[in-house]
Amino acid sequence: MKSEPGEDRELQEFQQTKSTMDTTVTIAVYASNESEASKAIDDAFSEIYKIDALMSPSKADSQLNILNTRGEVANADPAFIYVLEHSKYCSGKSGGAFDITIQPVLDLWKSKFLPEGSQKPPTADELNETLKLVNYSEISTENGNVSLKPGMKVALGGIAKGYAVDKAIESLKENGIENAFVNAGGDGRYIGQKPNGTSWIVGLQNPDRSEQYVTAIEARDIAVATSGNYERYFNESARVSHISDPRTGYPSKGIISSTVIAKNAIDADAFATAVFVLGEKEGLEMIENLDGIECLIITEDHRLVYSSGFKKYEAEGYS
């Protein structure tokens, strides 16, 4: 809640961390008292829980699972429709490098490395057949109803967390919180600043040494998201990246991680994935053509590649 002119409030930091959306979510706010902070944080988590209930791949009654099982959802929730539509927007901007209809390809790769699987990558023929089901333009969202072509499935792992972070931030603002952050498994959005006037500092992890940082960002009224192939694999021995290229069906190569700064978390989330898929040259070209979005790429040969406006966000001592 905004203070009246002349009213001197001592702001304190309040923070909660919970497990949801298959990750760890932390919400930190500066508020004048615990009851104000608790209500704001509870309401923000409620928004995240709503998104998880709609878009979780592990909840049988989520609209995502209903869509993937039945091929359609009647009277879909507006939030679900918004994420699908925004996914299509990001797909268009990335030339199809970001495409939520990638799920059949992910399923194919996963099936190969199950205990009863071949333990070998899919054949070119299997991939080409499965790629016929990957086409974001085939997602229909007319008159509040969502439908897919037979056999198609969507994966929201590259965008739903970002959207949930944005909804949580909106909720905090509605409760009068002006200085806060929400971080969901590496997708973070930061508003305002600390009471001493300093920005939130976001360290970017060195992929080879988890305790070290390659750089740090002064995060004030921005979102930051990182996509990387050093945390998740279908199968540890296969070392197959969890991020496949929707255009080819093969795991993305050439980049260890891509970090994107944007005004909101939904874009930071989606475009971090897109940069990872596109690779150094194409990824950088895409970012340079997007207003208000910057990126830092770590290549497999450990070079740091910056978009033209990224360094202005770097904390002192790193730029």
UniProtKB/TrEMBL annotation:
It comes from the Archaea. The keyword Ligase does not apply. It catalyses: L-threonyl-[protein] + FAD = FMN-L-threonyl-[protein] + AMP + H(+). Signal peptide: none annotated. InterPro entries: ApbE, ApbE-like_sf. The keyword Lipoprotein applies. Keywords: FAD, Flavoprotein, Lipoprotein, Magnesium, Metal-binding, Transferase. Its EC number is 2.7.1.180. Gene3D superfamilies: ApbE-like domains. Its cofactor is Mg(2+). One of its GO terms (molecular function) is transferase activity. It is an enzyme of class 2 (transferase). This is FAD:protein FMN transferase. It comes from Methanosarcina lacustris Z-7289. The lineage of its organism: Archaea, Methanobacteriati, Methanobacteriota, Stenosarchaea group, Methanomicrobia.
